[in-house]
Amino acid sequence: MLQEGAHGKWTVSSSDESADENSDSEKPCTSSLSDATCGKTSGPQYPCSEARKAAHKRKSSPLKFTDKSLSTDAPPAVKQRPSQEGSGWCLSSSDEEPEDQQKPVHKETVKEEKCDVHEEHPLNLCKDDKLSENLKEEEYNVTPSEAQDTWDLVTGGNPFRFFLTKVSGIEQSYNSGALHIKDVGWLVRQYPQEFRKKPLLIVHGEKRESKAELIAQARPYENISFCQAKLDIAFGTHHTKMMLLLYEEGLRVVIHTSNLIAEDWHQKTQGIWLSPLYPRLSKGTSGSAGESATNFKSDLISYLAAYNSPALREWIDLIQEHDLSETRVYLLGSTPGRYQGNDKEKWGHLRLRKLLKEHALPIPAQESWPLVGQFSSIGSMGADGSKWLCSEFQESLVAAGSSVTTFRKCDVPIHLVYPTVNNVRQSLEGYPAGGSLPYSIQTAQKQLWLHSYFHKWSADVTGRTHAIPHIKTYMRLSPDFQKIAWFLVTSANLSKAAWGALEKNGSQLMIRSYELGVLFLPSAFGLDKGYFHVGRGKLPDRKDSATYFPVPYDLPPEQYGSKDQPWIWNIPYTDAPDTHGNMWVPS
C-alpha cells in the first residue's frame, strides 16, 4: 500500500504489526523464514525482527544506486572483513592483524551455543571445568608486554570494567582495549574444541514456530538445554543480554548489549560490563556472605528468581556459593508483570529512581544538569511528552539524593541520541545497519513532537561515528558536559515496554519485557564529590583514572539540523547511495 506523509512516500507491508507497543520492538516475528515477508528463502538463520530481515535481504540482494551524479555523497565503501575461526574473549590490541593469523590473546568464555541464535535472547549460562589459558602469547606480532597489558585490563586495569566491542574497519588505535569474541560463527564453533561439550543453558523468549526452530537447531548438541522466559503480557520480549560463566576458579557475570549473532559483533557500537572473576566462598559460609556494597549479589539472585524456572535454581545456588563483594555497580533490571506497593521499586524506571534517591548525592542547581538518553529503538511515547517521557520517566531520571525535588521537571534539558538517515547511510555497513534500528513509520508519525529532542550519533572520541550504535546508555551531566552524576549501560531502549509505565493513578507499574543493565554511581567508586569527570576516549593513563568515566560517544550531542531525519526502517531511501553504493528499499 503506497502512502505519503511528512517523511515522503513509502510502502507499508501488510505483515507489519500495528500495535503501538510492538511496532518498534526487536521482538522476532514467528513466521517461517521462507515466507515472502522475510524476503527470500535464504533468510537469516535465526528468529529476528522484520527490520533485521529487511537488512539481510538488502545485503543478499543489494539495489545499486543508479544516479552516478550523487555517488560522491557517500564515503568510499569500507572493506567488510569475513568472520574468522577462533575462540574465546579477546581484548584487541590492533584491528589490522592478518585475519588468517588472528588468535585470542585472552580466552575465558567457554560458551557454546547452536550456530543459529535468537536475536534477543541472550541469557547464556555455561560451565567449564577449567579457565582455559587465561593469558596466551600471540603467534602474530604481539609482544609479551602487550599481552600483559591486555590481561591487566581484564583483571583490573579498567576500574569500571566497561568495554566497547571491537569494530572492523576503523583505525586500529580505537580498538585498543576493545573486547570481542574471536569467531562469531556462532557459538559452538566459537569455543575451543575441547570445550564444545560443556553444559549450556539458553534462556529465551521464543514461542510456537520460533521455539520449535530453536529446539530443532540445538538437537545435534546433547549438552544444550533451554529455559523459556515467560512473557505473559502482550508485546513483551526477552531482551536481556547476559552470560553467567562458571569455571573451576570461580564465576563471571557478563552484561552486554550485543545479540549473540555475528553481525552484532562486527561493525556496530556495543557495550560490555565484565565482572571480576568471583571466587568460591569457603564451605559453611553463611548465605549472606559475599555481598557487595551495591547489593549486586542479592539483586542478581532476585532477577533470576523472577523467571520462576526450576532450570535456573542451580545457577541461583551457584551464585550463592561465590563471593561477589568486589562488585562496584548496581544491577538494574526489568521483568514482566504488574507491580504494586514495595514491589513497584524493584524493576524498571522506578528501580532507577530508588537507586538515585538512596545513593546519588544531591546536585546543586540540578535543574540545569541535562539528561542524555541514547538507544537503538523507540516505542510509542503517546501524544505528547506529558504522557510518559517528560512525566514519570523523567522524574525517575532526575532523582538525586533523599531531598524533595523543588524544581519543575520540565526545566531539565533532555538530549535523545538516535541515528539520522545520514548516520546510517554513511555507516560502515551502509543502509543495512538500519536493520538494528527498528523505529517504524507507523510509530514515528504519531509522535513527531518527540523528534525535537533528537540528537545525531557521533563518536569521533572512540572512532565509532560510522559504527551504528546498538548500545543503550543513559546519564546525567553537568551543564558544561564535563561531569557525570551517573551512567547506565543497559539493554533497555526508549520504550514503556522496557522501562515500565504507571497504571491505576500511579499505584501500579506495568512492565512488558525482560531487560538488564548496570548503573555506575560515583559513591560506589569512592568519590565523595558526587560525580565522575568525563573521560575522552580511552581511559587516562593515571592513578586517578577511576574519576574519569569513558563515555563512548561525543559530548555535547549535536541536535538534528533542519534537514536531518531520524532513521525509520520501513520506508525507502533512494535519493543517495550508502557506503557500498546501494539504496534502501525494505520491501
TrEMBL record:
Residues 1-116 are annotated as: Disordered. Substrate binds at K241, K472. Keywords: DNA damage, DNA repair, Exonuclease, Hydrolase, Nuclease, Nucleus. Residues 100-116 have a biased composition (Basic and acidic residues). The record marks S495 as: Interaction with DNA. Pfam families: Tyr-DNA_phospho. This is Tyrosyl-DNA phosphodiesterase 1. One of its GO terms (biological process) is DNA repair. The keyword Hydrolase applies. The active site is at H239 (nucleophile), H470 (proton donor/acceptor). One of its GO terms (cellular component) is nucleus. Signal peptide: none annotated. Residues 28-44, 81-93 have a biased composition (Polar residues). Belongs to the tyrosyl-DNA phosphodiesterase family. SUPFAM superfamilies: Phospholipase D/nuclease (SSF56024). GO terms for molecular function: 3'-tyrosyl-DNA phosphodiesterase activity; double-stranded DNA binding; exonuclease activity; single-stranded DNA binding. Coiled coil: none annotated. The keyword Nucleus applies. The gene is TDP1.
